[in-house]
């Protein structure tokens, strides 16, 4: 039995390793091009209690080279100094606009409502939605706009460089790239508009006004928290293509500041992703079987608690998991603590999914910034 389990674990480790190796050749790092006239870009930032990061987010956008940029910030009923900080920046730079969000209508998620309002306020053709904790690099916008044109897609998205500090951040946050690149066949995604391949990162999304309106924009996904998946799906449902690019050099962010933030942050969207009744078991098998089980099986075999013949496939599976995580760490400048504790990090991610599902069954949603 243990030998069969070890070979199954090897297969579950080999699949993401193979997909990830191919995807890394396709997940492009864009380069800015200098058009005859700079692209006119609206950077749209929804902000709710973001006093710690909003100034850097706005300044980063204003420092963009090679584009004609405006920055529109929607203060979404912040209880801190967010609006005051942006108001001061707007007083010094006419490219900054601050607006206050109207009351949240019934049936809308807060961020989706804020983004829909921002799109209506935008004065430029290219719309760039960024979270308030994302700082764009000086050439980041020019590179992203160039990628939008080069790709031919109607919506493109990328994962910014993820800065991490605390131990749980280093274990869990880098796994965004593992799940994205290890399990999504990008070559297939680019050949179809099927919603099965809808993927993106809600921290950074770039589109054009006409395409955004054609798919209904954030209004078409008003009830969701998970715009990283749901907005690309809305585009694909409208027959529009979406694509992914490597945003490591385009922008950077630190999503969370402590272990509690990591747990709550990953749990808040989980019941719209992996933690659904249909998805939780397959994802547990894929992640647990391919990344957590192999070192446990290898240790059991070496200790005489499992068949000796299980040792080779279990070690091979373990090596594949660590190799993929190490390659991703180099490519995306991730923590080596996360690499060393790779199986533990994956186990935490799986635990978060089951926690979110249990809360959902109990009728309790994860609160985020004072809203459920």
What value does the Rg take, in angstroms?
Answer: 21 Å
Terminal Cα span = 45 Å
The helix-and-strand class reads alpha/beta
The CATH topology of the largest domain comes to Spore Coat Polysaccharide Biosynthesis Protein SpsA, Chain A
Helix-strand topology string? HEHEHEHEEHEEHHHEHHEEHHHHH
CATH architecture assignment name of the largest domain: Alpha-Beta Complex
Query: How many individual helices?
Result: 15
**Within the largest sheet, what's the order of strands?**
3-2-1-4-8-6-9
Tally the structural domains.
Answer: 2
* Main beta-sheet strand count, sense and barrel state: 7 strands, mixed
Mean pLDDT: 94
Strand segment count: 10
Point out poorly predicted stretches. Answer: none
Oligomer: single chain
Approximately how much beta-strand content do the residues carry?
5-15%
Shape: globular
CATH homology group of the largest domain: Spore Coat Polysaccharide Biosynthesis Protein SpsA, Chain A
Assigned CATH class of the largest domain: Alpha Beta
Helix content: 40-55%
Brief sketch in words of this structure:
The chain is an alpha/beta fold. It is built from 15 helices and ten strands.
Walk me through the structure.
This protein is of the alpha/beta class. It folds into two domains: 2-24 and 270-361, no CATH class; 26-256, Spore Coat Polysaccharide Biosynthesis Protein SpsA, Chain A, CATH 3.90.550. The chain is 50% helix and 14% strand. It contains 15 helices and ten strands. The chain has helices spanning 2-26, 54-62, 82-92, 110-121, 140-151, 167-172, 175-183, 186-189, 209-215, 227-237, 259-268, 280-302, 311-332, 336-340, 342-361, and strands at 39-47, 67-75, 96-100, 126-130, 134-136, 155-157, 160-162, 204-208, 242-244, 247-253. Strands 3-2-1-4-8-6-9 form a seven-stranded mixed beta sheet, with helices on both faces. It has a three-stranded mixed beta sheet with strand order 5-10-7. Helix 1 (2-26) runs parallel beside helix 13 (311-332), helix 2 packs parallel to helix 3 (82-92) and helix 12 (280-302) packs antiparallel against helix 15 (342-361). It is globular, with a radius of gyration of 21 Å. The N and C termini lie far apart (45 Å). The mean pLDDT is 94.
């Amino acid at each position: 039995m243990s030998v069969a389990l070890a070979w199954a674990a090897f297969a579950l480790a080999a699949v993401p390793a193979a997909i990830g190796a191919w995807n890394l050749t396709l997940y492009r790092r864009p380069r800015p091009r200098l058009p005859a006239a700079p692209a006119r870009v609206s950077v749209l930032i929804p902000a709710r209690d973001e006093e710690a990061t909003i100034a850097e987010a706005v300044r980063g956008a204003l420092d963009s080279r090679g584009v004609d940029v405006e920055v529109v910030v929607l203060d979404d009923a912040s209880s801190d100094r967010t609006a005051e900080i942006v108001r001061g920046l707007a007083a010094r730079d006419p490219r900054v606009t601050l607006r206050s969000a109207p009351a949240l209508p019934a049936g809308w998620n807060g961020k989706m409502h804020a983004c829909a309002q921002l799109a209506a306020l935008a004065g430029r053709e290219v719309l760039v939605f960024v979270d308030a904790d994302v700082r764009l690099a000086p050439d980041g916008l020019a590179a992203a706009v160039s990628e939008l044109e080069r790709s031919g897609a109607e919506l493109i998205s990328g994962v910014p460089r993820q800065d991490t500090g605390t131990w749980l951040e280093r274990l869990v946050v880098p796994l965004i790239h593992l799940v994205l690149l290890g399990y999504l066949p990008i070559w297939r995604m680019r050949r179809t508009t099927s919603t099965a391949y809808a993927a993106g990162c809600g921290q950074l999304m770039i589109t054009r006004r006409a395409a955004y309106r054609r798919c209904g924009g954030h209004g078409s996904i008003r009830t969701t928290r998970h715009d990283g998946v749901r907005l690309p799906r809305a585009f694909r449902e409208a027959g529009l293509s979406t694509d992914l690019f490597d945003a490591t050099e385009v922008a950077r962010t630190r999503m969370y500041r402590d272990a509690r933030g990591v747990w709550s942050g990953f749990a808040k969207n989980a019941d719209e992703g992996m933690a659904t009744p249909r998805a939780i078991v397959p994802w547990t098998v894929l992640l647990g079987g391919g990344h957590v089980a192999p070192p446990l099986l290898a240790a059991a075999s070496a200790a005489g608690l499992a068949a000796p013949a299980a040792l080779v496939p279990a070690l091979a599976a373990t090596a594949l998991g660590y190799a993929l995580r190490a390659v991703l760490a180099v490519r995306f400048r991730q923590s080596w603590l996360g690499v060393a504790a790779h199986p533990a990090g994956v186990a935490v991610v799986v635990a978060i999914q089951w926690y979110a599902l249990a809360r959902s069954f109990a009728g309790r949603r994860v609160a985020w910034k004072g809203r459920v």
